[in-house]
Amino acid sequence: MGSTVDAREIAQFAAIADAWWDEEGAFRPLHRLNPVRLRYIRDRLCAHFGRDPEAPKPLNGLRLVDVGCGGGLLWEPMTRMGATVTGIDAAEEGIAAAKAHAASVGLKIDYRAATAESLVAAGESFDAVISMEVLEHVADVDAFLAACRDLTRPGGALALSTLNRTPKSYLTAIVGAEYVLRWLPRGTHNWKKFIRPSELAAALRRQGLDLADLTGIEYSPLADRFSLGRDLGVNYLAFATRP
Ligand SMILES: C[S@@+](CC[C@H](N)C(=O)[O-])C[C@H]1O[C@@H](n2cnc3c(N)ncnc32)[C@H](O)[C@@H]1O
Ligand SMILES: [Mg+2]
Question: For the chain, which end, N or C, has fewer CB atoms within 10 Å of the first or last residue's CB respectively?
Answer without folding.
Answer: C
